[in-house]
Amino acid sequence: MTATNAAHPYMANSTTAARAQMLAAVGAADTEELFEQIPADHRLRGGLDLPAGIRSEVELRRHLLELLTKNETCESNLSFLGGGCWQHHVPAVCEEIVSRTEFVTPVWGTPSSDYGRNHAWFEFASQLGELLDLDFVGLPVYSYGCASGHAIRMAARLTGRREVLVPRSLDPERLAVIRNYCEPAEMADHIAIVPLEVDWETGLIDLDDLEGKLSVAVAAVYFESPGYLGTIETEGARITALARGVGAESIVGVDPISLGVLAPPSRYGADIVVGTTQPLGVPMNCGGGVGGFIASRDEERYAREYPTLVLSACETIEPGELGFGMTLFEQSSYGSREKGKDWTGNSVYLWAVANAVYMSLLGPQGFVEIGEAILRRSRYAAQRLAGLEGVEVRLSGPFFKELVVDFGGTRRSVAAINEALREQAIFGGHDLSADFPELDHCALYCVTEVHAKEDIDRLVETLQEVIGR
Amino acid sequence: MSNGGRERRYRAPIWDEPIVMEMGAPGRRGFVPPATDPELAAATGPREDLVPAAMRRAEPPALPELTEFEVQRHYLHLAQETLGMLGVNLFGTCTMKYNPRLGEHLTARPEIAAVHPLQDEDTMQGTLAAIHGLDLILRELSGMDQFVFQAGGGADAAYTNTCVTRAYYAARGELERRDEVITTIQAHPCNAATAAAAGFKVVTLTLEEDGYPSVEQLRAAVSERTAALMVTNPDDMGIYNPHIKEWVEIVHAAGGLCFYDHANFNGVMGKLRARELGFDACMYMLHKTFGAPKGGGGPAVGAYGCAAELVPFLPRPLVRREGGRFRLERDAPQSVGKVREFWGNVPQIVKAYGWARAMGGDGIEAASDLSVLANNYMEDRLLAIRGVTKSHPQIGARRLEMTRYSLGTLTEETGVTVLDVENRMVDYGVDAPWLSHEPWIVPEPFTPEPGELWSIEDIDYWIDTLARVCEEAYADPELVKTAPHEQVIHRLDAARIDDPDYWATTWRAYLRKHGPRDRVPAGASGA
Questions:
Q1: Architecture of domain B145-358 in this structure
Q2: CB < 8 Å to A31, chain B
Q3: CB-CB: which of A116, A180, A361 is closest to B163?
Q4: Residue A55 domain flag
Q5: pTM value?
Q6: Cβ-count burial of A216 within 10 angstroms (0-12 exposed, 13-18 middle, 19+ buried)?
Q7: Is the minimum CB–CB distance between A46 and chain B shorter than 8 Å?
Q8: Smallest Cβ distance to A322: which of B113, B117, B517?
Q9: What whole-number distance in Å separates Cα of residue B464 and Cα of residue B468?
Q10: In CATH, what number is assigned to the domain containing residue A405?
Q11: pLDDT per position as a tens digit, B466-504
Q12: What is the pLDDT of residues B349-389, one digit of tens each?
């Protein structure tokens, strides 16, 4: 084998000739000379103990497939897992567009040369703005929890206050993210997270407790609708009015796939709206499909607190021509380092393109219909599950997509039930027992448009067998 | 892309796409949700009972109504109107490398795409094995004891570091006292920004004659208040701080932690290990150095690695190997909890694992050799161009994988700025080079980085293009100042973009502030 044959398919200049040509041009005998800035005692001790490269795609594919096919999937199993990452249908066109190399590989061009991508991003914000009935939408952030964390910090800066009220039914995963954003108690800018009691009969926020905890120290009331446990917060308008009464901001989290049938939070008084983007055309990806957004009214007061990059329509030097550029860049961490608003960086911009395609495909009617399909399917699941001996559906309030199923009467743990279901190729709902003392023996079941009636029937029949054993 | 020194004819595709909200017609459909089974519909009652009136949406959202094909074509047009990596893209600090298509192909399979993170561990052994495999590779490259992949980008990994730092000092009862993070003006802005967002005061060291802050400046900055040092090395000018081991010793002596932002790992991978230099933690960007794609700004991964002493504080879950099986360690008493939901952008982790296996130890070493060689090859040619100088010309030593240049001379002599030049370069199919993070240390900066991907022909084409644009600047400055001329759109007139009465982040805001467009492109409804 000659040295030339050792060239690597990812590296054009890995041929002996190219290396020699460049070395000659720079006047170096070998590449080692070029590392002269690095002191000898900084250099690697010993060599790299890594296997040699697998240059053939055939071998590499074989190796990776051997690994990946050890996974079981929600396609070959019937899954009812949700809770921050949800199984929705991903339209084929979404997949095609976000697999285009033009969108997959770039980083940061000019507004003219990366025009198409900016245009798609603008359509992400514009269509999300229609769903939310809000005029100001930032480019996406890492996740729902990160959006919530940033929004709470925005509210703290806006009000100069350092307390946020959050319902006890909040997703522990999201809460763990928010905790970091609120800083530990030792820090001067710590934001205290005060839990709001929840009525465990209905799943709704306890308004008496809210009134008791609201004060002029409160920067924001944070709640979600639908919430982590699926509950539609029917007292949304009352909660935001109470918050406004003490000069606090209302931050509302929302799953945008619900917004064909549920009122957007801006209609019941939300000041800042956050949420997930994953349901809008992004696969679950083992949790790697999550993304978040921040939106508000188009008021300077809010706009000037956004930590995200913010894209604006903008004229060009050619009359009548429209392009897109960054507005409020100076307040980002790129513009102002530690003086900027929190920080920004890479986020989930490719998913924003998927979201834009998804919203264009669904259109107004699609959102209404998918919302109704999810409402009906999840309600049907609740009815059927409640009919099982020893099984109860908790939280009597209205819900969207997710429901709390209590197996307490079966005297079987959720873990045991899920293990038995898995033998029948069913992934049962996420076990809530450890996270919520009030929900011992409960599981969070997620039902979406991908679940046909026979899927729900199969779950119920299998559960009946499992419980009856 | 070079064609034996001959010019390439290039013109960006122009489709004049309307805003999607301007397109379509009432009643048209692109996606139809599944029909509801009649029995299921009957069982679940009338529509108005599904949601209480107060929480019901009054009218459907004002989204466009298009067929599936119209949506597909619209976004394919927008894809075509994105230059990105299709020409020659030497965007410095971002290490533009090949993103193997195999990774896209495999991670689109249901074994990744249709896996839920809350599945039982037994059903995710493949994913966990890939994560663990990459963890081991990164440990070998860095000398660290454990990596976590939860952070959604490099900045998020810097943030992870600030969270871990807080937890470490909180556990020692020192957090109230240790409230300062030291960084340098040449470290990526995210280091300063995440430290501030985490509640620390930021101390920024300035550059001195050698291109980095002196040991004396650092000594004057450290104290019993120092929580951490967050630093990039080499910096974005290709300058390596040779005193970095001493820096680490000074910070450690004051009781602080040291974080190595390995944003510029491409020039030193396989050449040094962060842990061997004394660092307590480091960060790699998988979407940059490890072959995962950038997605135009994510999904990305900041792989955060640390020494054993900091492992208790890392976000959870961590992937643990026990015998032949992998499990998720979901909690730990001193853990910072989470910086983002779940365990990271798994498709990107798998792509990076695939890239690292494809490259191997030999390929990774060759890549840093070739990156540094190509950068030095560029330097000789670029400095021969009239109007181009480099930062810190007094430093004779070879730069690493990138070099910071300046068009200050060109601007003085022609009035043409670096922004004009980048806007003209895109007319030749060469996407704009990276300029510099704020603040600009040299006037009119630009920072190309050739990496290991681009061929000599590509690199030559890039240099030829810059040379040609500089010639144009001297011969016909207006041509460059009004560029681009061959792109999808003309240059933005962004003079008012920060004006609240002007900005429009959504189409509805645009219509409210500016009214319907005078010139609506074909394809828009009613056009």
A1: 3-Layer(aba) Sandwich (3.40)
A2: 369-370, 372-373
A3: A180
A4: no
A5: 0.97
A6: exposed
A7: no
A8: B517
A9: 6
A10: 3.90.1150.10
A11: 999 999 999 999 999 999 999 999 999 999 999 999 999
A12: 999 999 999 999 999 999 999 999 999 999 999 999 999 99
